[in-house]
Amino acid sequence: MADMTSTLSGPRGPKPRKVLSRNNIMIYGSLIVVSLYYLLPLWVMVMTSLKGMPEIRMGNIFAPPVEITFEPWVKAWSEACTGLNCDGLSRGFWNSVRITVPSVVVSIAIASVNGYALANWRFRGADVFFTILIFGAFIPYQVMLYPIVILLREMGLYGSLTGLVIVHSVFGMPILTLLFRNYFTSLPEELFKAARVDGAGFWRIYFQIMLPMSLPIFVVAMILQVTGIWNDFLFGVIYTKPDLYPMTVQLNNIVNSVQGVKEYNVNMAATLLTGLVPLAIYFISGKLFVRGIAAGAVKG
Amino acid sequence: MAASRPNRLFRNLTAKIAAIPMILTALVVFVGGTLWTVVYSFTGSKMLPKLKFVGLDQYERLWDTRRWMVSIENLLIYGICMLVFSFVIGFILAALMDQKIRFESTFRTIILYPYALSFIVTGLVWQWVLNPEFGIQHILRSLGWESFTFDPLYNADIAIYGVLIAGLWQGTGLIMVLMLAGLRGIDQEIWKASRVDGIPAWKTYVFIVIPMMRPVFITTLVLVAAAIVKVYDLIVAQTGGGPGIATEMPAKYVYDYMFGGQNLGQGFAASTMMLLAVIIVVIPWAYMEFGSKNRG
Amino acid sequence: MDPSISIKDLHLSFGAVEVINALNLDVGQGEFLVLLGSSGCGKSTLLNCIAGLLDVSDGQIFIQGNNVTWEEPSRRGIGMVFQSYALYPQMTVEGNLSFGLKNAGFSKTEVAERVAKAARILQIEPLLKRKPAALSGGQRQRVAIGRALVRDVDVFLFDEPLSNLDAKLRTDLRAEIKELHQTLRNTMIYVTHDQIEAMTLADRIAIMRGGQILQLASPKEIYNRPNCKYVADFIGSPSMNFLAGALSTEADGTVRFTCPSGVFSLDGYAFDAPVRGGEGWLGIRPEHIASGAEAASRAIQLDATVRLVEPLGSDTLVRVMVADQSFWVRMDGRTEVREGDPLPIGFNPGRCNVFDKTTEARL
Are C254 and C205 members of one domain? Predict the structure, then answer.
C-alpha cells in the first residue's frame, strides 16, 4: 500500500475549492442583496405596526420599536373606521371568509367536473367551449364587468354574497379547468376504461376513482383559489354592498380615507392583517404553491 | 334493425349536463358579455345602457380625453419597464438559483412571497416605504444627505416609476419561478456537452439555453402582458391615480366611467380598447402555439 | 507503452452514499472498453468522472499520461457522446460541429477543414445545413459523434449512445461505431446496459456492480469463464441455469456435485484451485445443454419433462423440469417439442461453471 501511494503524485481527490471564491461571492452576494430588498417592506410593516405614533413621527421606519405596543393591531382589528362603521377590519375579515369558503368550494367543484368531462368524456363541441374558456382567461375583466352586473341584477343577486360567489366561480373556471383537465389527462386512461367496462357511470367514476387519486391537484387548486379570492379587490368592490365588502376593499378604505389623522401604525397593522391569510398559506404550502403557479402558468 | 340506437344528442348525456356551467360561462359570460360591451360601446349610453347608436363618437371622445392619453402612456411605460426589468431580473435570479446553491428554497421563499400578497397590500406597503416624510427619503436625509430627493409618489413626473417599483417587487418572483422551471427543463446533457466543448457558462446561456427556452419566454411574456393590461388594484391602493392624474391606468378609467362617472359609453369604449390591446398580444401567440403543434 | 487512461484508487461519494469505491482501471492505447452493468451500478458515474463532469472524492485520473484529476472537461483531450444526443437545437449541424472549435479560437479554415473531415467520415455532408429537429434519431447520433470527432482527441467517451434508438437502427449504428473505431484507432470507453452491444463492440468489458468492477476481461473470457455468479447470471440470455448443491472430493481426486437432481462427476471441469468440499453452485448455459438423442453423448444426463416452449425462429427456448429444478434449454429451431413431452438432456462438465455458495466466486 505504501508503495502505491508514493506513485500517486500530483493532484488527487476533489478539486480544491475556496468557499469564498469570486463565483460564490457573486452568487450569494446578489441573492442576499435581493433577498434583503424583498424582505424590507415586510420588515417595515411589522416594525411600524408595533410602534406608537409619536415614535413613528420621530424616528426611522426601518428601526425596531423602542417600545413595543400591540395597540395598533387591536385598533386595526376592532376599531378602525371606514365611513360610518367603526368596528375595524374584523368585519371585512369575516366577510372575506364568508366569500372565500363557498367560492373556493363551488369553483373547484365545477372546474374539477369540467376537467374530468373534458379529459375522459369528450363530446362533440367540448373543445370549442374549452378553447373559448381559455381565451376568456385573457379577456380583460373590464369588458365583462357591466354585462355581469345586468345578469346578476336580472337574477336578483346583484350586491349579494351569492352573486359574488358566482362571479368568482366563473372567473376561476378557465385556469382551474385547465389544471384539472391536464391532471386527469395525465392519469392512465386504462383506469377509466376498466371502470367503464365494470359498468361504472359518469359520477361513480368521478367520485370513486378520479377523486381519490387527485388529492394533490385539489390542494394545488385550493391554494390558488384561496389566495386569489382572498386577494381580490375589483369583484368585491363592484358586486357587493359596503356591509359585505371583503377585507381588501375595507383595508383600502381605511388606509386611503381622507378624513382624520393618518395613523400609520394602525394602517400597517391592518395591511399585515389582510396579508396574513395568503402569507400563511404560502409559507405552509411551500412547494405546492410553486407547483400550482408553475403548472397553471407554463401549461397555459 | 338499429332501433335501439340512441340519439346522438343523448350520448354522454351526463357529461353534457355536467358541462353546462362551463358552456354557460363560455357562451354567455365570455362571448356574450364581450360582444355586449363591444356593441354598447357604439351607443351613447350614459346612466343606463341604451341602444342608441352614435357610431364612433365614444372612441373619438376617448382619444380626445387627456386622462385617457395619460393612462395609455402610463400603461406603455409601466408595461415595457415591467416586462424588461422583471424578465431580466427574473432570469438572472433563476440562473443564480440554478447553480446548485445552498438554501435554494429559502431564497425562493423570500423572493416569491410578495406574489402571495394582494396588489392592495403591495400598494399600501410601498406607499408607506416611499413616503417622503417617513420613508427612504427621510432616512437618507437624516443620515446627512440633505439634498436627497426620492418622492416618486408625490412627483407627477416620476410617480409611475414608484408604482413600477411596487409592481416589480410583487411580480418578479413569479417570473423567476417560471424561468427556473424552464431552466430545470433543459436536458442536463446539454450542459455536459457544452462543458466538454469548453464553452463558458455565459455563452452557453446566451447561445444555447436561452434560445432553447423560447417557448417559456413567450408564454410568460403573454401571461405577464395580459396581466399588465388589467392593472387596477395596485394603482387604487398606492396612488389612487395621483398625484393629479399622473398614474392613471386604462383599467381605472374604465371603472371610474362605468361605476363612478355615470358615463357607460365611455367605459365600454375604453374597455373595448383594452380588449383590443390584449388581442394584439394573444392572437399571434395562439397562432404560433397551435401552428407549431400542427407542424409537429 | 503508457496506458491511455489510468484510474487510480478512485472514490466518489454523494454525501454519505459511496457510489464508487476504490476503483482502479487501466485502458490501453486504442482499446475499446465497455462499461457494462445494470442501472445504478456506477458505470455512467465513472464515465462522468473520467470526463471531468463530476468531481471525484478521492483518487486520480490520468489521460495520455497527464494527471487530469483537477482539469476542466474541455482540456482533458476527450470527446463525449450522450444518450440524448445533447445537440444544440437552435444551431445547424454545421453549427453544432463547429461551435466548440470556434470558441476555442481555431481559425476559420481549420474549423471548416475539421468539420468537413468529420462530416465525410460520418457521411453527414448532406445534412450540414439542417437543424437537429429535422434529423432522424440515427442522424442525430451521428452528428453527436461528429461533435466529438472534430475535437481531434485521443479518447472518446460514449454514454449509452444507442439507448434512445429503435432496435433496427441500434444494430446499424453499432456496426458503424465499430467501423469508426477500426478506422480511427482511438481509445474508446463505452457505457451501456445492453450486453449484446458490449459483446459485439468491446476489446474488453468491465462488468460493474455497486461502484466496483467485478470482472474486466475480453468478451469471450467473460462469457466462458465468468469469475463470479453475478457476472455469469448477468451475461447471456436466457440466463445461465444454476443448481445448488454440495461439492465433495473423492479419493481419486475427482470432484462430485450432489444436488436434488442427482450426483454428477465434475471430471473435465478446470478448477481454478483444488477444492476440498463445501456448498456450491453449478451453472450451465442453456445453449450448452444438449437434448434428445444428442444428450446421450454428454457426460451428465438427466431425464426432463417439457414445461414451456418458446419458438424464436432460429432457436427454440424450452423450459424443462427435472424433479423440482427447472432448466432453460436452447434447441435448434426446427425441433418439434410439446408441453408434457419427456426430454432427455445432457451436458459436459467442461462447459459448466462452478461457484462458491457464499462468496459466489468462481472455483
Answer: no
